Please model this.
Amino acid sequence: MAKKHAAKKSEAQEPAANLLGLFVIDLTEEQKRELKVSGGVLVESVDGSAARAAIAPGDLISQLNNTEIKDARQFNALVAKLDPRKVAVVLVRRGEASQFVPLKPASN
Model:
């Protein structure tokens, strides 16, 4: 009897948070309309620096170091290029309030 090889299910595994301790997802078109925004990402889970800064699931991130965020892919690409010796600043919206939050990237 031949053994079946288990297919790798990388999509099923919980993705790791990025260097800022953030796991973000794209906004749906409906969410963009409701929030009256054209871009940004939704925080799904937090860890590390982001958790210490009180960023919470459900927060909207619209900027990273004064760069407008369009989607999760762009956000994660920008985070991957951050200098771990420098503090990064994200613009976080919770409800009707927005504020800039400084975050220290984790060292690899």
